[in-house]
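Summary of Year 1 activities. Much of the first year was spent building the evaluation harness for sequence design. The harness presents a backbone, in tokenized form, and records the residue chosen at every position. We chose the following record to illustrate the format because it has been used consistently in internal testing since the harness was completed.
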């Protein structure tokens, strides 16, 4: 019989998709557990956060912290201080975090300083690029976690190389893909491409939000030039992250894009985005999660980053790394003509949340014996 409480912490929209299947499966395995959900509010726009909770069928947030935006130091510090207050009051048996955003690291540090064990969903991802703030967050979170839930064998290799006890590492698969598969039929039934006046399978979907790209105004202008050129061949649907929208608007670049068959939208609800993603001719992105979703869907993905912490999407998926070079967008038509054959990635099967929840339940039954757990 389980007793006590488990606290899940989310802060940015990818966290919600990663956490939802584990949250749901753990509640089914251990109905007597008090399972809490803390939303730090790192993404404070409802379209970037709360709507995901609604569509994913998760229960209401127990605690909303309203951390908001700011520098990395400010945001991490506010989240850490606010989470600590909640953990002191509730003192859960386990804190579960996901991904690599500032809220992830803040929750992990707050928990371990209170001697509360941490479980990390999506452990072991490495870009080996120390210019990425996310690389700092995921490495530090892994070091203080008691249960490391990984989604691919190369993540195990990364953790082992860093000296993590193999008994703490558990290969469960990709929980975000669980969320995708469970909503895919509904998303396709909505036919969101009709809303934007594009033909199924004949358009490109674009997401660009990383500061290294959109805060560099020279790179951003270069990206706009390349998008305009690409849009002469394919209509493009481009949901705008608030940061991206602000920079485009400040430079008047949004008006240029809309004149050239680039359909600019506000951030999209999860089901709308998933429906568009599933039926796109290709996706152009600098996002981590989109690299995974497209690889599971078999949709060609072109990533505008110099590195990826998800190499399995290149080795076994549909992802091609273009580098932080917007001019390489002009290669996309040729790359599409020789797209690789699609094959499912092992354990990205829609059951990862169940495997993760069973691992957490085993830990909760005997946390003092965690070192003897076998994935």
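For this record, the design step produced the sequence shown next.
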């Amino acid at each position: 019989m389980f007793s006590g409480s488990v606290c899940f912490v989310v802060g940015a929209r990818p966290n919600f998709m990663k956490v939802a299947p584990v949250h749901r499966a753990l509640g089914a395995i251990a109905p007597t557990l008090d399972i809490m959900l803390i939303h730090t509010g790192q993404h404070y726009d409802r379209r970037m956060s709360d709507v995901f909770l609604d569509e994913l069928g998760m229960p209401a947030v127990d605690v909303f912290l309203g951390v908001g935006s700011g520098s990395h130091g400010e945001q991490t510090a506010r989240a850490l201080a606010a989470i600590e207050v909640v953990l002191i009051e509730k003192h859960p048996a386990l804190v579960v975090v996901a991904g690599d955003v500032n809220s992830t690291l803040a929750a992990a540090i707050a928990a371990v300083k209170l001697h509360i064990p941490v479980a990390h969903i999506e452990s072991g991802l490495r870009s080996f690029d120390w210019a990425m703030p996310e690389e700092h967050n995921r490495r530090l979170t892994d070091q203080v976690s008691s249960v490391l839930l990984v989604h691919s064998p190369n993540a195990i290799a990364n953790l082992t190389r860093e000296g993590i006890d193999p008994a703490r590492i558990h290969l469960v698969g990709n929980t975000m893909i669980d969320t995708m598969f469970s909503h895919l039929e509904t998303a396709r039934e909505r036919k969101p491409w009709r809303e934007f006046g594009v033909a199924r399978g004949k358009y490109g979907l674009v997401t660009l939000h990383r500061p290294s790209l959109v805060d560099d105004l020279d790179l951003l202008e270069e990206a706009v030039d390349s998008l305009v050129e690409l849009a002469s061949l394919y209509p493009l649907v481009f949901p705008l992250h608030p940061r991206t929208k602000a920079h485009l608007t400040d430079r008047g670049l949004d008006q240029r894009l809309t004149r050239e068959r680039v359909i600019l939208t506000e951030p999209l609800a999860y089901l709308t985005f998933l429906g568009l993603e599933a039926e796109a001719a290709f996706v152009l992105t600098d996002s981590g999660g989109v690299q995974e979703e497209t690889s599971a869907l078999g949709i060609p993905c072109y990533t505008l980053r110099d590195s990826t912490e998800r190499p399995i999407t290149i080795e076994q998926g549909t992802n091609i790394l273009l580098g932080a070079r917007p001019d390489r967008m002009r290669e996309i038509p040729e790359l599409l003509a020789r797209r690789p054959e699609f094959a499912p990635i092992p354990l990205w099967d829609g059951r990862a949340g169940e495997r993760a929840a069973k691992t957490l339940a085993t830990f909760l039954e005997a946390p003092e014996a965690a070192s003897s757990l076998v994935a």
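DSSP finds 17 helices and 13 strands in the chain. Quantitative recovery figures across the full test set are reported in Table 2.
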